Amino acid sequence: MALTEELKRCPLCGGASGREGLNGKVPLVKCHGCGFVYAGSSDREIEAANRCGEETKDLYRQIQSAFDVAWFDWLVSRFPGTTVLDIGCGNGLLLRRYQAAGWTVAGVDPAPWAQTTDYPVFADMSQTPRDYYDVVTCTSALEHLPEPVAMVKLALGAVRPGGVVYMSVPNYDSWAARRRPERMREQEVPHHCNFFTPRDLRRLCRCAGASSFRIRSYGLPLAWDVWRKHRLKAGKRAASSCIRTQQQSPRPGWKHRLVVKAYYWAGFWRGDKLELYMTQPF
Ligand SMILES: [Zn+2]
Fold it and tell me: What is the pTM of this model?
């Protein structure tokens, strides 16, 4: 794809200057001002690449397992409160775990199939109440959005004073990404349009006006990729032999919980993911 004459402005600092794609073939741009690497594709191309049809529902079903349930249960246990908004809620597995813990839940997702649930799902952030939720979560979504600063501002606006905004994104300063940075980004663009490192996340927080935040890396390198491929294969096998019922309600045991914590702490130094924990001041 040819890059347009004028390179897209940096989504973090708004800088106009940028360097054309890291190898000139894919539309990647590196900001001269702040060093952030992002997709040079138009917002429309990015949105088209991220449109989640009905088939996404099946994909979720195939890759989600008792480990995901254990992971989300642990995530829920880390937050104080009773009301939560999950941005990019998809098939709602995380929100179901909040419900199981007694929380009042709501989601945001543009996909029509994600909106047919027994809890409220808004099509976009403009419909959500302001200064209301104890916790706002946004896991693995910010890397798909052309305007990440605006989304962080909206998330901070939806949380009550003293509440928490939690976000997670892939870490492009991880061991795996540092080994082959261009290849990793080229494979993912424009589906992923923001390639955050811890430094970029700090800048993002400052741009969005977050006053109190903590950034940490987690996740055993490549574990998630290997696991997803395994699940997709297993899912296809299960679908073909019509034994899908066990996957519908995976129940985690102590082994799942142990593996989930080991996965998290194994990425303490340059892990595969980054988590961003912001607190809204009173
Ligand atoms: Zn920049």
Answer: 0.88
